[in-house]
Amino acid sequence: MGVGERFVTAGQSNSANHGSPAQRVQDERVLAHDLVSSWHPAHDPQPIATGSGGSPWPLLGELLVARLEVPVGFVSVGWGGTSIAQWQPGGTLYPRLQGALQFLGPQGCRAVLWHQGESDNIADTSTASYAAQLQTLIAQSRVDAGFALPWGVALVSFLSGYGVDPAVVAGQQQVIDQDPLTFLGPNTDELDATTYRFDGAHFNALGLQEHARRWAEALVPLLGVCNDGLCDVGESCASCPGDCGDCCGDGLCDGSLFESPLSCASDCPALCGDGWCSHAEGCADCPGDCGDCPVDEEELEAEEEADVAPELEVDAELDAETELSEDSESPPEAVDISDFEGELPPPQDEPEELGELVPSADVEPPEQVDEALVGSGELQRAEGGCACQSSRPLKGSWLWLMGLACLMAVGLARRHSPGDRSHR
Fold it and tell me: Which residues pair with 197 in a beta bridge?
């Protein structure tokens, strides 16, 4: 049977057959190889690895087969109770790893799954020493495999009576951080001695299941099963939004995913004073987040001019009124003769000569004109009336014209009297 995905597992006892109970595969597409005969169902104990008990690899294989729908094979070379120093190239254990990689050939292995560190807890191996030795081991394995072989490195140091060793874990994490082809495996230091271990060090049934599940989760990015339509164990909106949906909109403002009011307003509503200048904020309503608004010099000058303009208009109006009040006379307006129709006597025959006319309110017949006024040669004006100066009496139409002239003069005088300003 062809094998779709292949893994080499290495390390110490919890990568080998020292768990309990031994596991049997339910799906015969989960396979193992002993480097001698052929692929066969991966029942525990795994060939080559030390121990006669259980391992996490049959359980991991079934999880991967269910997800990938292809056969999955393991070559397990782990040895219980060993340190990182014993796995160095040229050491006693490295040939086990080297032989498996050369047997599978170039591109014949998806990754090495490394679970080791408890013995270095006992040995007090430093962070720098552990990281340097693991880097040497990984580099030589890629030479012997013939390609850029990925590695999955578990975070492991826990041992009953010793606890967790931060120095060893830091060395493992350092290699993961510095090598782009090395990915984070399961953190089995989180699996306590009471719940997941039967002897304070090795995994019981629940521990084996959880160990396998955590490896399956760690392998999701490597195997490329994201976007298969299923949000599987180990997938999330962060690692696989195509299967699990977009993290923005889940109601959690997650800073680890770089969510903020700018990138995800639905999860991270904008608040003035939170340090983010969101699209809903501006310099006018939240200068603390968005800074002070810039000053537009042209707009400022326009506003100042707008403030001064009404004052200038008021001054102009006052000046205009002052000029009108100081203006003593306006040009005389024309008098409409029709205004006086009905007040004038009918025209008479024209006299021989027309005397000089002087305004008068009432027109009297020539025979009633005071001869003394006529003969005096002086202009006489009575209150509200007018008199004529002439060398001889007026008759006929000349008398009519004299009356018209007097009425016109009276009208003009009324319109231009100092108390009447209606002509403005």
Answer: 203
Q: Are strands 182-187 and 151-155 parallel, antiparallel or unpaired?
A: parallel
pLDDT value of residue 366: 47
Rounded to whole angstroms, the Cα distance separating 60 from 111 reads 14
Token pair 């010099």 in the structure block, residue: 297
Tokens of 361: 């309110």
Q: How far apart are CA 218 and CA 7, in angstroms?
A: 14
CB-CB contact of 159 with 121 (8 Å): yes
Q: Which residue has the tokens 């826990």?
A: 158
Q: Which amino acid is at 93?
A: L
The H-or-E segment that residue 132 falls in is helix 127-145
Q: Which two tokens stand for residue 349?
A: 């025959």
- Is 70 exceeded by the pLDDT of residue 387? no
Dump pLDDT digits (tens) for 61-91.
Answer: 999 999 888 999 999 999 999 999 999 999 9
Q: What is the pLDDT of residue 117?
A: 98
Taking alpha carbons only, the member of 65, 106, 75 closest to residue 225 is 65
**Burial per residue of 331-354, b for 16 or more beta-carbon CB atoms within 10 angstroms, e otherwise:** eeeeeeeeeeeeeeeeeeeebeee
Distances in whole angstroms, Cα of residue 262 to Cα of each of 254, 255, 268, 272, 277: 13, 12, 8, 13, 8
d(CA 10, CA 16): 8
pLDDT above 90: residue 423: no
Residue whose pair of structure tokens reads 């049959």 in the numeric block: 58
- Of 222, 223, 224, 244, which is closest to residue 233 (Cα–Cα)? 244
Q: Which residue do the tokens 């060398």 mark?
A: 391
Find where tokens 């509503």 sit: 269
Instruction: Output the CA–CA distances (angstroms, integers) from residue 238 to 249, 266, 296, 402, in the order listed.
Output: 12, 17, 44, 114
Token code pair at residue 332: 């005389």
Between 183 and 221, whose confidence is greater? 183
- Beta-ladder partners of 414: none
List 31's β-bridge partners, or say none.
41, 73
Of 30-44, 124-138, 229-243, 329-343, the range with the lowest mean pLDDT is 329-343
> DSSP secondary structure string, 36-75?
SS--EE-PSSPSSSS-SSB-SHHHHHHHHHHHH-S-EEEE
